[in-house]
Amino acid sequence: MSRRRAPLLTLLLALGVMPAQARVRLGEPLPAHPWVSAGREVVVVYSHDCGDLGALWTAILASGLPVRAVNAEDIPAPAPTGVPAWRGADATAFARTLRVGTYPAVLLVQGGRILNAWEGTFAGDLGLAGLDDAGQP
Fold this sequence. Notes:
By secondary structure, the protein is of the alpha/beta class.
């Protein structure tokens, strides 16, 4: 390869790798957190600039699963009544270790591992029916 192509190729390779690094990865364990994990739970990672999350919180709470709220990026934003929000530098580090690319991020977690993730696009369906039916004949 000529010297002229090498920098361009390196740049293209670097740009091609970046999105893969900025995505939550399914099957990975959650980073360290302050709560006791439940068998199956929902983790919502959000920031102050997400706008109105009323519909998202309504859908998440309707699932009946334990809900963990992680308010990242150092500016307090409310969670629904009864859902304590984890805030501060450790909450932001948690989000960055997960490689959350877009807030809000909704994670369906089982046994401490990420089963499914929605970043900025959660429509209210956690896909629980498919998971619950998978073990039945």
